[in-house]
Amino acid sequence: MQVDLFDFVLPAERIALRPAVPRDAARLLVLDGTGTRDLHVSDLPRQLRAGDCLVFNDTRVIPAQLEGRRGEARIGATLHKREGPRRWRAFVRNAKRVREGDEIAFGAGVSAIASDRQEDGSIALDFAGDEPVELLLQRAGTMPLPPYIAGKRAPDAQDRDDYQTMFAREEGAVAAPTAALHFTPALLEALIEAGIGHETLTLHVGAGTFLPVKADDTADHRMHAEWGRIDAATAERLNAVRARGGRIVAVGTTSLRLLESAATPDRLIAPFEGDTAIFITPGYTFRGVDGLMTNFHLPRSTLFMLVSALMGLERMQAAYAHAIAKEYRFYSYGDASLLLP
Fold this sequence. Notes:
It is built from 8 helices and 17 strands. The chain is α/β, with parallel strands linked by helices.
C-alpha cells in the first residue's frame, strides 16, 4: 500500500508535553460496533464486559539517552536494543564523526567503544568496565523521551515517574508502552470489581518505534526487531479467557504486536520468547487480540497503519479527524482510544 494513504495533518498544539493528572482523567475515544463515543479513561470498566481480559506490557524504561564526546565532537546516542551483556545497538547523532574502534565518553565515568555500523545507521556500543550497564545508565543517562516531546522541552526529573507505567518491572525498554500510562491502582481495582481480568507480557520497546517510514510503499519498509516473552502459564490463561467467551484486549500496540507474533492460525496464544519484527498493515488477519486500547499515533507511522488494519483505514482517518476537532491530546503523553472491531 502507498504510505501517503496514512497521512493526516496534526496541529502542533495537539501534541501533549505532559500527561493528564490523575492519569485516568485522560480522555478516551471509543470506537466499536455502535459508533463513536467521547469518554474518559476512568469510564473504561463500563466499556468492557465481565470476562474480558486486558493485556499489559510490563517492560520498564531505562535511561537510554546519552550525551558524550569523541575528542572535540559532541555525540548523542539513543540505545535501541541489547545485543549482549555489555553491548547495545544505538542510533547515534553526529554519527559521521564516529569510526569503528572510537571511544565515546559519556561522563560520570561511563564510556563505550563503537563498532559494527549497519545499513540503518545504527552502531554497536560496548560499555567499558565491570559495573552492570544498568547502573552506568542510571549515572549518565536520561529518559529517552520521544523526539516530538524532546524537541520542545528537555527531559526532567518528573519524566522518570511520568514516563513509566504502574506495571513496569522488566528493565530493557527505551520507549514506554504508553497506553498503560493511563492506568492507576484505583482504575485497576474498578476493572477487577467489574469482572475484567488482566495479564502481563514483556516486550522491550526499541527506539525504532519512532523512526519515520521513508519508503513510498509499505512493502518496502523494514521493521526493527524487538525482544519479547509470553510464558506458558500466561498463554494458558489467555486461551482460557477466549474459551469462556471473553475477549483479549491489548493495552498498547506493543502488547498487540507480541500477542499477534505468538498467535497460532487457530487463534490460540502460544508461549513465545525471542525477537519479533511483525509489521501489521490493512489486510492482516488478527488472531491474537479482539480489541486494542492505544494512544493517538503519528501520521504515516507503522502504528497508525496497525490501527487502520484493525478498524479500517477510512474509519481511523475519520476518527482522527474527530479527535483533532474535539481537541484530544496526541502521542505518548496524550489521550487514548479504545478500538473494538
